[in-house]
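Q: I'm teaching a short session on how sequence maps to structure, and I want students to see two examples side by side rather than one. Could you give me a first protein with its sequence written out and its structure tokens following it? Keep the formatting plain so it prints cleanly on a handout.
A: Of course. Example one:
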Amino acid sequence: MSDARAIEAVTHTLIRLVADGVNGRGDGFDGRARVDAKPPHEVPGTDELMVNLFLYQTEVDGSLRNEDALDRVPGETGDPPLPLVLRYLMTPYVRDGKDRDAHRLLGLAVRALHEHTVLGRAELASNAPFSDVARQLDRIRITWQPLAEADIYSLWSAFQTPYRLSTAFEVRAVLIDSRRPPRTPVPVLKRGQHDEGPVARGDVESPFPELTAAVPVTVDDEGAEHEQASAVVGGRVVLRGVNLGARTVRVLLSHPLLAEPRSITPAEGDATGTEVRFTLPAASAGEYAAGLWSVGLALTTGTGAEEATTYTNEVPLALAPKITSELPLRVARVGGTATFQVTCSPAVLAGQPVLFLLNGRALREVRAVANEPVSGGTLRFVLPKAQPGDYLIRLRVGGVDSPLVDRSRAKPRFDPEQLAKVE
């Protein structure tokens, strides 16, 4: 493991290694050369021998970013360590511009690092005892970092100081551990009710409960079902899917403008493994709203301590408004203007868009107070320059139209009741 002072510890160890390398007896400078870690533009005009190690870039090692720590026990989870790559610029400084001494100083420094391509745990522990970096299980390696001409120019331009002979190398990977403890569940002694483990299936179907569609239906006089484009309050809905069998089944209906979902329990015999049928009960005030709903199932299996509830995915269900005014509407023009007074169920909620459709023409509601949200069960619409005649009518609330097409026969037809007669 490594703490947050790992970067400091690695830099401190590198300084010690380079200092020993350039001040060795024989071909070294016998203690006259100093090693520091400063930004190049802050190195003063020196009258001594010096090697500067500047950490110019730190980035994350992408190959180790999501790897668990080596000491993590299988089955435990936690934050992975942060793997860092440290890039240094090593520059020799000499007095009086003696370049040959600079070359010698640089040669001694790179040899010291070449002899320590891996920072040993003993070196890290002795040179940087203030950090736990010596305890990390991954080895810390030093490799040379070639710099293109453009990279060198960019670096020294950023330093705003004249270029000096230098070389670059990188150190990877320095791991910094998270302080948050891992999650350590106890070992698993038994898998499944009878210790049988997971069940393998030889098909491509999902083993989990899943809904595929919500289909509104109507039933004709002969008992045949006909699919509809949208549901209505008091109508039937068929939910289709797979693995829907359970001891108890609840239908959960959600609308974005209603705080709580509506729960419906299907009648006995209406729930099978592939279909669940239910009826939308008569609406009370504020219980339903026209528009697009989301419908899912809550499936409960087992009893007592073995009881478990599984929630399926949700599928869309369009709930249409119903025009409750006496049909067909009969409207007398006044000065060429026709005014339509329409009642509907469910009531319109504040914030729902409302349109009254006459053949292919759409009318917006006329409100008593400008900019007041549309709401309520009684709506008013005005058609200027109205022409006498019969108009097919629809009420669109929340993007869903009231039923206009009668699909209870072999061939669809317009419902003859859904008319407005303008006189």
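Q: Perfect. Now a second example for contrast.
A: Example two:
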Amino acid sequence: MFIILVYDIEEKRVAKVLKICRKYLNWVQNSVFEGDISKAKFFKLKTELSKIIKKEEDSILFYKFRTLKYYEREVMGKEKQPVDNIL
């Protein structure tokens, strides 16, 4: 599956969340990651993140796509971190 992850995390925990997300996904913009991920790795990602975040203060959104058939990505302005593996 392909996911887009967006987070709003308290500053004290941002570095830890960033490190975890980079293990599984491509960083594309401040607080935004995207990439293809298996269901097992997605479960591991969520498990690791749940150990770091405080649910009362932090927020993580996952946009899940079953297929990239109807997916289109458009960048306006400078692309912060090019992703070459997007179809």
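Q: What should students look for in example two?
A: Point them to this: The first strand starts at residue 2 and ends at 8. Also worth mentioning: Residues 9-58 form a domain with the Alpha-Beta Plaits fold (CATH 3.30.70.240).
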